[in-house]
Design brief:
The chain has four helices and two strands. The model has no long low-confidence stretch (mean pLDDT 78).
Length: 97
């Protein structure tokens, strides 16, 4: 019954892609948001998403040309007080030319 096997395979062409995506999702590390922060610490992007961040130690484009241990994700985490002060300062400074 060759026709039957062919017909069954053609009804589910997405099945292989589904399992590939599932395997990738399971193997991928969780995003930085999964880690709870210590008390009174925040992510800068949560306080002021308009501030551009360039967290180079989390990638290869730094003076070491390698990812630095401890920088699991490109996220700026600081005290809530510091984040609010930085946000206020960035709003008061003139725009870049």
């Amino acid at each position: 019954m060759a026709g039957r096997a062919e017909r069954g395979a053609s009804r589910r062409p997405w099945l292989g892609a589904f399992f590939a995506a599932l395997a990738l999702a399971i193997a991928s590390p969780l995003p930085a948001r999964a880690d709870p922060l210590p008390a009174d610490f925040v992510r800068l992007a949560d306080v002021d998403p308009t501030i551009r961040q360039d967290i180079r130690y989390a990638g290869l484009e730094n003076f070491l040309h390698r990812k630095v241990d401890g920088y699991e994700a490109p996220a700026c985490i600081l005290t809530a007080q510091a984040a609010k002060a930085l946000s206020l300062s960035s709003k008061q400074s003139p725009p870049e030319a």
